[in-house]
Amino acid sequence: MEKYYEKELLEELHDIQETYGFISEEDILRISEKRDIPKAHLYGVISFYSMFHLKPTGKYIIKVCDSVSCSLNHSADIVKVIKEHLGIGENETTRDKKFSLEVVECLGHCDEGPVMIINDTYYTHLTTNKVVQILENLD
């Protein structure tokens, strides 16, 4: 696929994600037919970019880094306290659709771990107490 068309595809996917919070099977089928792109290619693009989701997500999307450097700084403890505090597992959303939790490979702040991002805000040098405070301060 030409880069020009790839850019248009990404823009269309971004618009859908922005409008509905996720990209549905119906959206994928419609784009596949309209652009004559195999559905497998669309799923590949969507799964490659972490900003795209195939199911509804919470108002706050929490991404916790689990790269080697964050792992050495106890990112597993951060994930555990989030799961316990919110009552959800990885790749799940709270019943009230307020929070979704994802564990990701790298957030690019390797010297400040453990690190998480909630929507567009980065939190570094995390402790379990700090994480609970952050979560409780979100409306």
Automatic annotation (TrEMBL):
Keywords: 2Fe-2S, Iron, Iron-sulfur, Metal-binding, Ubiquinone. PROSITE patterns: COMPLEX1_24K. Signal peptide: none annotated. [2Fe-2S] cluster binds at C65, C70, C106, C110. InterPro entries: NADP_DH_HndA-like, NuoE-like, NuoE_dom, NuoE_N, Thioredoxin-like_sf. Binds 1 [2Fe-2S] cluster. Pfam families: 2Fe-2S_thioredx. SUPFAM superfamilies: Thioredoxin-like (SSF52833). GO terms for molecular function: 2 iron, 2 sulfur cluster binding; metal ion binding; oxidoreductase activity. Gene3D superfamilies: Glutaredoxin, NADH-quinone oxidoreductase subunit E. Its cofactor is [2Fe-2S] cluster. Belongs to the complex I 24 kDa subunit family. This is NADH dehydrogenase (Ubiquinone) 24 kDa subunit. It comes from Defluviitoga tunisiensis. The gene is hydG.
